[in-house]
Fold this protein.
Amino acid sequence: MRISTYAIVLLALSTCTTIQAQTNKPSAKQQKSSNKGTESPRYKNAKAPIDARVNDLLARMTVQEKLGQLRTQLGWEMYDKQGTKISVSEKFRKAVSEDHVGNLWATLRADPWTQKTLATGLDPYTAAKATNMLQQYNLEHSRLGIPVFLAEECPHGHMAIGTTVFPTAIGQGSTWNPALIGRMAETISREARLQGGHIGYGPVLDLAREPRWSRVEETYGEDPFLNSMMGRAMVKGFQGENIGSGVNVISTLKHFTAYGVPEGGHNGGPVQVGLRELYQSYLPPFKAAVEAGALSVMTAYNAIDGVPCTANPFLLKDILRDEWGFQGFVVSDLGSVNGLAGNHGLAGSLAEAAELALNAGVDNDLGGTAFAKLEQSIATNALTKSRLDEAVKRILRLKFEMGLFENPYVDPAKAKNTVRNTSAVAVARQVAQESMILLKNEKQTLPLNKQIKSIAVIGPNANNTYNQLGDYTAPQAEDNIITPLEGIRAKLPANIKVNYVKGCDIRDTSNVDIAGAVNAAAASDVAVVVLGGSSARDFKTEYISTGAATVGTAKSEQLSDMESGEGFDRQSLDLMGKQLELLKAVVATGKPVVLVFIGGRPLNLNWPAENVNAILCAWYPGQEGGNAIADVLFGDYNPAGRLPISIPRNVGQLPVYYNDRNQQKHDYVEGPASPLYTFGHGLSYSSFTYQDLQIQVAEQSAAKQADNVQSGNMQRGNNSAMAPKSSMIAQVSLSVTNSGTRDGDEVVQLYLHDEKASTVVPLKQLKAFKRLHLKAGETKTISFDLSKDDLMIYDASMQPVVEKGSFKVMVGAGSKDIRLNGKFELKEDLR
């Protein structure tokens, strides 16, 4: 495999090619084909091959109609709602008549940025009617009748009114259960598609190795392998076996690539990573998702080593297309093409920015304002007809595959009866339950006894609906969300006294009642204190054009709780406002204290780790979070969530993740170099015993032969997703026994270390895991197959290779909780 250099990338950015000018007016041939009374064109024949339909339609299109397919405009502006009456907006009429609109984004989105509320936005029934109305108007008022693609935000539920709200991705990753996340994705896909959506933005596959960054909550954490498995599950859940099923959507992978490690934690900031680290850490989750069949990829705002991802042919052509065989379409992030002329200073105009992006491999402009200028590029001969047609074909093909030309409409009654049904809510509760991470549990404080006489529930996140939902969440009806306080009350008999005091806000210090919280704790048998962060947007927050929130500086008004979520980067990771002071005061009462952490990123838990009896990490647990938290607190659910990201002790440690390449890390003058809680950590109400580690190494000659077959297929340009799977190098098996008195889940984790490699590798790298349920006293034997992909590194020449030598196998319940060790030997290299 040949790796391009950044010098080649920069040279490619300056390359300009030509396109032959075409006019607004259809040619005589094009006009004739669209006249009434003529024979139906082939692209409208459902029985014709899709390739033939695409080519027939493309031949009939003007340049302006083609450009309409390469722009995605803001969807929520395309309808008007007055009371219960919904109509096509003037903006949509113009988009159809002048822009030949091909795609809309966030048509059903509702939040403070879009200014869509429960009153002005659309519920599932009216959403389905509205998308039908838009499709019908477009088909009746456009020359060729090409249906419109509707893309929707779907990271932890469809971001629309009345849909199911799941835990954010950092919580999803904490389940370590890809099969469950696949079921969740199927639910999200169904809810979006039945309302008229076709594309779901998600999963986010960025590695979160910079917790100051505002979007940690949107990721699956710090590890390439865990992210890969979760990403594959999401893609398969979204897209199913057939995107034309009527219940599946196209999955858009975000953000390509290395977006989660910006300098200083600044959202969208520059990234400095080497080529080897790019290939071995940041690209694998995207590669795995592409191999799973993902049909869309979104570029990132950031630049890597000075080259913006939205104008980087090395990423978008050499890697994505040539190496991985990606067949879908590439869409920019909102306004990121404009950013080539703005933030990045690569282009002198929007037209030049659009040329750079399209030539680099971007097929679709989210926002659409930059690609609208591409007509100017025709006169300056800056584009080729083949590149323009290539991008248009990628969009049209998927519209045909989804069956939109035959059936662009959805059933409003079905949307009303299916979205957020009891089955969907049950999945939301299960994901929330499995995401709960018990970080600490001294003196068997948990689970709590339901027969206690009284319990204090304290804190700014104890009874705040929106603080437990995370960013990219629509407005919610009051009875949709179960808060921790509500979950606890529902769990206990009516005679148990629940003493609730908020105590303080997340950030604001003008409304503090620590004395009331202390009194409540003193009058109770136990205190549950719910602290952390918030990504809840409000209508006072200001937003930039990309939808990211801006950090408010107003001193006169009460501060928003928002300290996380897109745009809210942090300097420190300390609990904000008076939260720590509140916790210290409650602990000082001498009553047993349980800290429940609700937030979107790791925050400083040093003092609680030293002084609080038990700590439960819930991240943003979604609409069923209160029930799931209560299930764990009272022992109706035995927690087994594991950290997908390390929790640092101090920002001075950053970056701090378990699988770095620092071979001789030593402590600081002020304290340990290790994180407070490390990747993979999580406790249970049960105990588990590991034994009987067995490692069976396969015949090396057979492995090498299979390796050579796959290499030959790749050299012939076959899609890597279709190539033969890597042969098994070694099989690792072991037995796990639930030696406790409660049934429960255990997450078995397998880590690997290449003991002598030609380039520096991590001391420990996750390569397999399995979440399994064991009854009290039950033993199960499990096995993991290690393939050449699991052992592969990039050598000094940037060639992928499995090198001969000794490999250490480490199996346990966390990256720092290794229970069994073993080794195996490879006698020859596999290239």
The chain has three domains: 105-111+148-417, 436-653, 688-826. The first strand starts at residue 71 and ends at 74. Confidence is low (pLDDT under 50) at residues 1-25, 28-37, 706-725. The radius of gyration is 27 Å.
